[in-house]
Amino acid sequence: MTASTLADRLRQPEYTGENRCTPCTVVNVVIAAALSLLLGVAWPPLALVSFAVFAGAIYFRGYLIPGTPTLTKTYFPDRVLRWFDKEPTPTRVGSAPAAPATENDADAESPSDEVEAGQLDEGGESAEELDVESSLLEAGALDWDESGDELRLDPAFESAWNDEIERTDDATIRRRLADLTRLDADDISLESRSRNRWFVAVVDGTTVGTWESRAALVADVAADAALGGRFDDWDRLTGEQRSALARGLRIYLDRCPACGGDVRFGSETAESCCRSWEVFVVRCDDCEERLLEVDADALEPEAA
Ligand SMILES: [Zn+2]
């Protein structure tokens, strides 16, 4: 057996690379160091040798001590885990890499004066201020129902959106994302991450957008297309703002963009390697695709 096939056999992709869990790795390195020091008391050179072996195990297998995720989950304060956790919050496209994209006027772009400054209600931290709800109302994508209490999709917009969803395939997605991020459509690849929890658009190894599923991405891309003609200042919106608008509409989906199934709303417990937290989720009843996920803390700021 060659060294590289040995390495391949030892490697556990579900715990390494993209999936490596930082808190678990830190805990394991600390344990490895402590064990090596103990062994070093017995015979000093053993400290070095054992640490090298332990570090190799952590590198290839993701952890040294089986069950570390449970240990970490139990003993690390959530605040610390959250700090390290790589679990992405669904981002909006446009938090793009400083890629050598076509030179453009993106930098000169400032948030539109027409849109009122406001607070995104989805825990967004980077989208420039844009009141998603009132912008969507103004554009005629949303309107009030008969009672005047609840927002709903404007019927004309809804059918335009559904038409766009019908005709959205991977090529459409890439083209639309290229337009949003000002990157080259051919450079964008679409893939699943974190054991299918997220669907991402990647350019040169850098994630340029994250969605709950491919279905969620289809909904956003189609919404972006349907919204285009309804804003006077569309060209002045940034990719992040357009993406926030599309995401703001997803809560109003009543059919799954992937299979046409009914959708359900509910609370779920999301889990990464060593952390779990409460989320509000919109999910397809038929294919189980996750269409929207919002951190429960973002909805009830004092809940934690
Ligand atoms: Zn479905």
UniProtKB/TrEMBL annotation:
Question: Known InterPro entries for this protein?
Answer: DUF8054_C (IPR058675), DUF8054_M (IPR058775), DUF8054_N (IPR058674)
Coiled-coil residues are none
> According to the lineage, what is the superkingdom?
Archaea
Q: Where is the DUF8054 domain?
A: 8-87, 131-251, 254-294
What stretches pass through the bilayer? 21-40, 46-64
Pfam annotation, one family? DUF8054_N
* Residue segments, region Disordered: 90-132
Q: Where is the composition biased (Acidic residues)?
A: 104-116, 122-132
Keyword list (alphabetical) reads: Membrane, Transmembrane, Transmembrane helix
The name on file for this protein is: Uncharacterized protein
Q: Which organism is it from?
A: Haloferax prahovense (strain DSM 18310 / JCM 13924 / TL6)
